[in-house]
Amino acid sequence: MPPTGSVWRADAEPIPGDAFVPDAHYDDVVVGAGLTGLVTALLFQRSGRRVLVLEARSCGAVATGHSTAKLSLLQGAHLSRIAARNTKGVTQAYVDANRAGFTWLIDYLAGAGVPVQRRTAYSYAQHSEGVGAILKEHETARRFGLATHLVGELDTPFPSTAAVALEDQAEFDPMAALTALAADFRAAGGTLVQGTRVWGARASDPVRVNTSAGTVTGERVYLLTGTPMLDRGLYFAKVVPLRSYAVAFRGVDAQIPDGMYLSVDEPSRSVRDIERDGERLLLVGGNGHAVGRHATTLHAVDNLIAWTRRYFPDAEPTWRWSAQDYEAFHRVPFVGWLPRGRGRIFLATGYSKWGMTNAVQAALTLVADARGETPTWARTLHHRITLPRVMAEGLGAAAATGAWYTRGWFSAWRAPSSAEVLPEEGQGVLARDGLRPLAVSTVEGRRCTVSAVCSHLGGIVTWNDAERSWDCPLHGSRFAPDGGVLEGPAAQPLARCP
């Protein structure tokens, strides 16, 4: 089994930051130093505002640094799914927004000297049952202005039955992009603070932001993490948290096809190349599932490796990692004002696995809104309506969440006493101290015992054996074995137990 960690972060130089200044005041406070946060911060800072970026861990530690980093307007079968859940105007606005994000990022990376590889993007069917989805995606893409074309069986080592293609898309190293953005932001006078977790924000005037290092204030606050840690607006219930996996391979340079590939049928497969230090690597991703609801996540990684070796026999896995995405029921991101934020707190979430274009369009939207220059596509997306199909999907998701809540507590009450539990290395199990649910794990020879009750809304966490973490099946919060927060919406750790 290859080591755990993103290939992008494996040898990336640490991104420099600044010291936290308690009680300091800023024009804009941006929470999250991924692609959305750093593009937003840079645009505001360059316009003459005083901007602070707060990052709980380090730049790119979560979604951006663990992305497959495909920059494409052809997004699997995503556009036809959007069209089935929204009006024509909203679907067109989504395409226009993503085109704006694509163009801005391509131009920025060129100006910053970050290497970009232009590739044809392919959405393909692995089985004959997927051909209908290919035809539908092609028809939808053409209807909304994308110059796609149909392809028969692909000339690739892995099987396909049909595909739709869009030329002149792009791929890049997301950590190289973040390094450039952070450097430009700080050079423009911005302040980047890493290792400081935001616990909450009060919509006063100015907004008070409470962090693990103290309090700061800002005229406006932008919550640009995977999902907001504030529950106003109930966005945690409007998106589905999804976990997917990726493995980088070497030893197959000559066999790697020229293109970016994403299957439209299951099991999901994402394929691209990586140009790195004079070597060409193969990146394979897929096997996504709802967070905390998969019996063994390590099997998802093993399955990716087995699939790759079936079609690339000489492939040698070098790195494996996972990423978390949030899918809105209508498949269009939420970008704009946070309810009850008094026009001072803003958010962006729900990119549905297409963060490279959507992160930038979200940043462009937020900055344009602040300047009173909202683009036509953003105005349309701000005022979209929720159709009956989307309402039904939301109700179904809420019912499933409730079922997982009940199932979790039932399992916790049936768990053995913590005194009887000694998990094997790399494993975690539920236990009890009386009626108190506990999460007990053994990682690197150390036994950790923490509360099994998620600090967000009280779900019972489950063990993720691929990443050795405790994951909440309700809304996707994730915790380290010692209880530290890895993913929101939870802002507080799991309570430590003796």
TrEMBL record:
Keywords: 2Fe-2S, Disulfide bond, Iron, Iron-sulfur, Metal-binding. Residues 413-498 form the Rieske domain. The keyword Disulfide bond applies. The keyword Iron-sulfur applies. Pfam families: DAO, Rieske. InterPro entries: FAD-dep_OxRdtase, FAD/NAD-bd_sf, Rieske_2Fe-2S, Rieske_2Fe-2S_sf, Rieske_Fe-S_prot_C. This is FAD-dependent oxidoreductase. One of its GO terms (cellular component) is membrane. One of its GO terms (molecular function) is metal ion binding.
